[in-house]
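Below is the record:
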Amino acid sequence: MTPALPTRSQAVADALAAAGLPGEIRVLPDSARTAAEAAAALGCEVGAIANSLVFSCDDAPLLVMTSGAHRVDTAHLARELGTGPITRASAAQVREATGQAIGGVAPAGHPAPLRTVVDTALAGYELLWAAAGHPHTVVPMTYEELLRLTGGTPSAVAAE
């Protein structure tokens, strides 16, 4: 018998089902709060971890799905998107925008849709793993599924 998903992860499962995506949420025995922890737990490259990072951009939250292999260059991303400055959201802002805590933020299952950017570096991996609403839950998906789930804009999030 599969254990019940945490409430926040159930919202992610519902969003996956609504998008017609097959990803099955996996509950991990240990935290996958960081890309390195998730990669170690899953036996994959850290670059295949799709980190969900929330920023503030033009007075609104911006979700950036980025490869665990690098950091978001906010000045570069603002130029790519043609926006004002992009700054890191506080923990309270992340919780308000997503309903999820840092370390478990999923690409979906939020109270309202978020403007989303999906790192083009993630396209280089056959299978991606993203947080699923809780620090102990993850979900597999392809790059194309991630784009479909989030309605995100593909973009380089760091200078090459």
